[in-house]
Write a structure and sequence with these properties.
mainly beta, seven-stranded mixed β-sheet, 7 strands, 53% strand, globular
Length: 81
């Protein structure tokens, strides 16, 4: 998963700042609403990370059916403004 250097305003249950990601094989960047356990995004830094996606047994009606956990940071690159 590629993570863009800046978050983007998005609306889920409420207005928030989403990670902007591109999954392997995709060319389009998309808002990512879920947190990633163990990952802290630093503004201005672009990442390539490996995550584990797990099913949530009984997700809340307004919540995600998945939980994400950082496995490894593969690349970390500071981007110029």
């Amino acid at each position: 998963m590629d993570v863009a250097a800046q978050r983007r305003r998005c609306v889920g249950e409420a207005v928030q700042q989403c990670l902007v990601v591109r999954l392997e094989g995709d060319t389009a960047w998309k808002n990512f609403f879920d947190p990633i356990e163990g990952f802290t995004h630093e503004p201005g830094v672009r990442y390539r990370i490996r995550v584990e996606r797990m099913n949530v047994a009984r997700p809340p009606a307004d919540g995600s059916a998945f939980r994400y956990r950082l496995v490894r940071v593969l690349e970390r690159r500071k981007e110029l403004p």
